[in-house]
């Protein structure tokens, strides 16, 4: 799945399959300016920052069990969001510090370090990487991902895929080759 925010005409948090199909709104009320997302892949939760409502909130992948983690004026200055173990990590753009927020008790906020110029944060750790199983976009014997001549996008499950073409090409009638 692909998760993303939109705060155009109607602010929302959405998800869709990697090929863009099955687009679903998971949060579309009491939301104004969602600017960053973090996923809990194990428990299937989506965390987001709303800088207009000055809050960090969470829902499950279906948009249920919504909770506010923390709220306050300091949220207005946050950008980027990452999750690791019991903590959310973000950047305070006002003083360029990395903040650690306990995701179960939003009052436990600690400044960890200062940076010169940061707008995004990511956690790279072996335990945060999902185990890879065989999937529909694995290279075929000719080396083409999922048998697609250009792009292979996972569809509704890891067993299904959709082929797409680069700009300027169209998908052939076989659904795999681009012309």
TrEMBL record:
Any one GO molecular function term: Wnt-protein binding
UniProt record, GO biological process: canonical Wnt signaling pathway
Superkingdom in the source lineage: Eukaryota
| A matching Pfam family | Ldl_recept_b
Repeat LDL-receptor class B: residue ranges? 1-43
SMART domains reported for this sequence: LY
**Which cellular component terms (GO) are annotated to the entry?**
plasma membrane
Give the protein name, as stated in the record.
LRP1B protein
Gene this chain is encoded by? Lrp1b_0
């Amino acid at each position: 799945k692909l998760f993303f925010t939109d705060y155009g005409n109607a602010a929302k948090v959405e998800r869709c399959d990697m090929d863009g199909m099955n687009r679903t709104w998971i949060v579309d009320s009491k939301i104004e300016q969602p600017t960053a997302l973090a996923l809990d892949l194990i428990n299937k939760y989506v965390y987001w920052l709303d800088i207009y409502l000055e809050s960090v909130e969470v829902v499950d992948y279906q948009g249920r069990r919504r909770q506010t983690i923390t709220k306050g004026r300091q949220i207005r200055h946050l950008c980027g969001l990452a999750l690791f173990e019991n903590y959310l990590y973000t950047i305070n753009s006002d003083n360029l510090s990395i903040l650690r927020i306990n995701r179960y008790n939003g009052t436990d906020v600690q400044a960890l370090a200062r940076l010169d110029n940061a707008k995004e944060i990511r956690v790279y750790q072996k335990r945060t990487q999902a185990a890879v199983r065989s999937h529909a976009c694995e290279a075929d014997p000719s080396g083409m991902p999922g048998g697609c001549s250009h792009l292979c996008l996972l569809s509704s499950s890891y067993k299904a895929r959709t082929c797409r073409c680069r700009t300027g090409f169209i998908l052939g009638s076989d659904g795999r080759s681009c012309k």
